[in-house]
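Predict the assembly for these two chains.
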Amino acid sequence: MESSSNEHIDYVFKVVLIGDCGVGKSSLLLRYSDDFFQESYLCTIGVDLRIRTISVDDKRVKLQMWDTAGQERFKTLCGHYYRGAEAIIIVFDVTSENSFSNVLRWYEEARQLSRQDTVLVLLGNKSDMADSRAVSTERAQSLAASLNIAYFESSAKLCDNVKETFTATTRKMMEAYQKHHRAHLPDDLTNSKSLHMSQPIKSSTSLNCFDCSIM
Amino acid sequence: MSQDTDGNIVNVNGRVKVINRSSANDSPNKLKKDCVSNDLGINNLTLDLNKSDPDEIVNLGAALSLGISRCITATSSNSTVACSKSTITTTSDSYLHTNSRHRQKPEAELFGLGNSNITISTSVWKPNAKSFPGRVLRIAPTIVPSVDSEDPESFHNLSQDMSKTPKKSGKNPGMFHDKSSFQQYEESTLDAWDDGDDDLLVRLKLDEDYIKSTATNIIDHHSMSTAKNGSADVSTGKASVAEKQGTGEPSPSVRRHQSNGVPSIKRSMSAAQSSRELAKQKKFEALILAPSKNGLEDLRTMSWPGIPASCRPITWKILSGYLPVAPDRRESILERKRKEYFGFLDQYFGTRHEDQYQHIFRQIHIDVPRMNPLIPLFQTKLVQEIFERILYIWAIRHPASGYVQGINDLVTPFFVVFLTEFLDADVECGEVDITALSKEELDMIEADSYWCMSKLLDGIQDNYTFAQPGIQMKVSALKELTQRIDCE
């Protein structure tokens, strides 16, 4: 944790990463939260959680980032985690056509299970592997445009554009938050609205979290 | 806040439950009922087990397993084992020997800890924070008996020692009625519930580790005491308690209070210990070679505190149901089963690239290299191929679930344990050069791992079938439990 517990926090946002198996969801989070990359990383079972506090436009924002398992079988379980998310990042692998063609399915699922004002983002990972690239930036961009969501491209391995993606997503969440006229958070935030929303999830999933995560 | 001087249950606004069990007049059933009837759940619990009948404590432990979160403070002078028993049953979210007050009940009183001399204070809540529940700020000069880890009795007698420790304050302990000593306690502790509670979320893993290490300590200790009094009755711990009650001599304490707050039992392999280990091993070997009437149950009970490494492979095979209890049939069954597995391989493994099955194999193929990335053994091609075969054959033979991520990790323990059969005792398994083993040996390990993993999965298959009903049920059970406990 980089923030001390009594630090002033303006927003607490829940971000969920979804997408096919092996596209690099865990690697992205590991890179973003711990600035670390491992070539072959543990596969995620169920869900995993990472937290990072950042500053965006003079606001302190605490991001609760949920990492989900990509395998089909876990969809029913992971679906529970979409609820209450301020943002869902759909990740695909730019070297895998298959993971790109599944983006639409992930999108529909995310739309179905999340709130209306949830920010959706499309993220193409492994941009460092130019040689084996299967999905061009243009194609991904046009898909994102047709879904009316933002598109980013990153490389968790080279730490390229990872931070920028999360910062931009955070900015979008702040905009969405204000747009929907949710009461502004009091300054002495420990009981923020977001926190309250997260509470039921916290209790119902905590066991699941350590049961299923082999980190 | 009220204090029931009869030592019965005191209910504080339905939120904090304090059970002062110094009176043994109430039946455990009543206690149990009281626990259950408190629909709001129990958040904090103090037990004084000083005067209770050990049987009752065990029962009480069972009652408590109905749901206590966060804190159990147990002070006991004569029933450590029984108390451990109760804490084992509640390990889901229990912090043993942690003194804590509920965050919104600053006036809530804790009983049983009248003097900071006897405060056992450990916490995992905020390891780096200045304040955490139960942190003792001001410690009166405490007499901590010298540590002698070689005496298994010493842990038993820890609390006895402590209650016998001369009180520096000069006050009569009057443990549960001494207001000023409570105030003393209260002043000397901090309450860290106020802020950053959400941080707890990310500390779950740490908490779990703590629970595990505590449980291990208890189990280790338990096995030591069991070995000592030569009783196989580990299921109730009664024997240990009974023996315990007979001995009144104070003995040095084994538990230390370290600055990091995590209790640890210093362990060193003394001659006495290794001879105990040897005796235990002999007992296992005897039971494996000549099973008693209810051999499986006996073996299971005996295995609970831990199986000597040399007996572990065969014990696992028997307990998983792979090998029969009757020794004379084992050889033939092993042979038949191993043959059967390689028959499956011939029959099915060739299908892995067919359209119908390639997605299964692809998933296995990308997961296996991601297993245990830091252990060299699992990065060798030979081992990875063994895992691929085991997982693929299992998946293809269990179409309702197929391969689901996580199943791979269930093979690992079997594989490693069966591998140790062919290694010297002091070899570090993760570093071993597996190519040194013969093909026959590797085949045996592979087939045995397959069958044992298969037996294990038979019991938990609904965790892996569509929509994972097994997991959903557990999550909803947990949800119900947390709702009862979190009355907020």
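Residues 21 and 70 of chain A are 4 Å apart (CA to CA). The beta strands of chain A are 11-19, 47-56, 59-68, 87-93, 119-125, 150-153.
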